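Case 290 in the screening queue. Each case pairs one protein sequence with one candidate compound; here the compound is adenosine-5'-diphosphate. For every case the pipeline is the same: read the inputs, emit a complex structure as tokens, and attach any notable structural observations.

Predict complex for case 290.
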Amino acid sequence: MRIVADGLTFTYNRKTKFAKKALDDVTLTIREGSFFGIIGHTGSGKSTFIQHLNGLIPVESGTLTVGDLDLSKGKKTDKKGLRALRAKIGMVFQYPEYQLFATTVYEDVAFGYHNFFPEKSKEEERAAVFAALRTVGLDDSVADKSPFDLSGGQKRRVAIAGVLVSDPEVLVLDEPVAGLDPAGKNELMALLHRIHDGGKKTVVVVSHDMDDVAENCDALAVFSEGRVVMTGTPEEVFSRRKELEELRLDVPVTRKIADALAEKGLGNAFPLRSDDFVRKVAQLYRGKRV
Ligand SMILES: Nc1ncnc2c1ncn2[C@@H]1O[C@H](COP(=O)(O)OP(=O)(O)O)[C@@H](O)[C@H]1O
Ligand SMILES: [Mg+2]
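Case 290 output:
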């Protein structure tokens, strides 16, 4: 599903003295099948933007379309339409494991399914729950356990399974690897790539880790003070290092090494993804017969 925002503007506590403009004229297209990264400082509007995508925050000003659904203000989306939208746009909040509540993993994941598809049979529910658990790399035997007996990384995967159970076309995740150890982080990123499956699903991740987005995303948007200040491929965005630094944002470590090498006259056409970067360095190294 393609996502198109045009002039999206949103103010919290509008018409009160606590009014806070969180989105200011956001115009942005997320192509279908993209692995899209949203970066920017704390408070730049990232979470506010993604909560618009499944109708959690209603459009106040500007337009927003998700696939063929028009979420713009004044376009009536009834309860059924909103439920269908939320089944198609899976939303994984920050620290989703805090929202686990049921006595077993099965019940927790099934709750989401039942919410979206109350008319479906128990058999269909079972099939969907186990399929979602397997997708996130959890064994069937985990289903009867209490979610609270699992490790942090496993809990987070159960929470993601609870979103995947409706088989969404778009998966939106707010800081999906925050707080995980390096192994848990790698496993989760690998999981997101399995779900993305070369573009069969659209994945949108909010992150403040520039290395992560350079490594994983095919397109980025940079938010600052509620505005989108840059969009493009990671190569395009991170080639604007000065501007990013003026926004007090970092660049990936591969960009920094490439810049340092360029300063020494050692070429500057380095890719950002670390394995491509190493391959390029190895080529140069061999070519120079050092
Ligand atoms: N529920 C809320 N009520 C009032 N202000 C909010 C609320 N949520 C976020 N904000 C404010 O809106 C701005 C954007 O916040 P947010 O979208 O959470 O940014 P980010 O996800 O990039 O950290 C910030 O100034 C934040 O303080
Ligand atoms: Mg946020």
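Case 290 observations:
- The two ends are 49 Å apart (CA to CA).
- The chain has a mean pLDDT of 93.
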